[in-house]
Write a structure and sequence with these properties.
- By secondary structure, this protein is of the alpha/beta class.
- Helices cover 52% and strands 13% of the residues.
- It has 13 helices and 8 strands.
- The two termini are 25 Å apart.
Length: 308
């Protein structure tokens, strides 16, 4: 029951101030976030790729409140693209973007987000890499998929994310399972109402498997975003039964979560991509990680009480 509370807290300015001021917070954040500066994130990328892992980088920042913040997000990604090109990492690293960081929620936000993200996608293509559009809460899905459609007219390699807990996602998977389409399937990490999303974990898992089957049976490139050992095993079995080679799909996991499992999959010949967030606006991301994993929350609370 704490999950929805934490997800609500991820948007609370008052709780943000309390958590940010706690001495124990920084070590916990460092577990999930690869630093606040670009140089720190690139050091993490070099370490991961040296071990055979691939990465997708996320410059943290969402729910921007004005157009100047949206422009700063755009510029941060342009700097990231330049850094990846300079390191020759285009083939091993891509970028994930949240359109809310590009102004999607502002007045005229759909057009604003498209205008801001387009130069990032253009620069990524020039650097030999690509961009995946992260999915946020259900109110943004139509806009995000429409922007995806616009971008794919010029950059068909642009990736999408779908969340199995939303009732609509099976239909979205069918629409996105065409040739060359890169789709990351995740369970979902926002506090969604029962009118649009499954609330029971077992139903979310069943929907994940149904969506996975649609994507694996299609002509696109599925990206399985899960730390759940059962979902990983189901994906491996499904890929084998459907005749997919190991370079025709990939697994994705978050930085700092199940690193031994990430390396095990690489050792077995699978493509394994690590989602690497960085930046100063880490609070919302950090709170969602606590909400997802009770063990993370228990460790944080024990540490908080111990420091107190």
């Amino acid at each position: 029951m704490l999950g929805p509370v934490l997800l609500a807290a991820s948007r609370s300015a008052a709780i943000r101030r309390i958590v940010s001021a706690a001495p124990v917070t920084r070590p916990m954040v460092d577990r999930f976030v690869a630093g606040e500066r670009l140089a720190e994130s690139m050091a993490a990328v070099r370490g991961l790729t040296s071990r055979g892992l691939e990465v997708t980088l996320d410059h943290l920042g969402e729910d921007v409140t004005d157009r100047s913040e949206a422009l700063r997000s755009r510029d941060a990604y342009l700097a990231l693209t330049e850094a990846l090109a300079g390191e020759g990492l285009g083939a091993r690293a891509e970028m994930s973007v949240k359109l809310s960081a590009f102004g999607q929620a502002l007045p005229g936000g759909h057009d604003l987000a498209l205008a801001n993200v387009t130069p990032v996608v253009e620069a990524a293509a020039e650097a030999g890499t690509t961009v995946t559009l992260d999915m946020e809460d259900h109110t943004t899905v139509d806009s995000t998929l429409a922007i995806l459609g616009e971008l794919r007219t010029r950059f068909p390699q642009t990736g999408a994310v779908v969340q199995s807990y939303l009732f609509r996602t099976e239909d979205d998977c069918r629409a996105l399972a065409g040739e060359g389409s890169r789709v990351r399937l995740v369970k979902g990490a926002y506090n969604e109402p029962a009118s649009v999303a499954h609330q029971d974990k077992r139903e979310v898992d069943r929907a994940f498997v149904r969506c996975l089957k649609i994507l694996m049976s299609g002509e696109g490139y599925p990206m399985i975003g899960s730390h759940d050992p059962r979902m990983v095993a189901i994906a491996q079995d499904m890929a084998h039964r459907l005749g997919r080679k190991k370079d025709e799909y990939e697994f994705q996991m978050l930085y700092g979560i199940r690193p031994a499992e990430q390396e095990r999959l690489v050792a077995e010949g699978h493509r394994m991509r690590v989602y690497v967030p960085y930046g100063t606006d880490w609070y919302g991301y950090f709170m969602r990680r606590l909400a997802e994993r009770p063990a993370n929350l228990a460790f944080f609370l024990r540490s908080l009480v111990g420091r107190g």
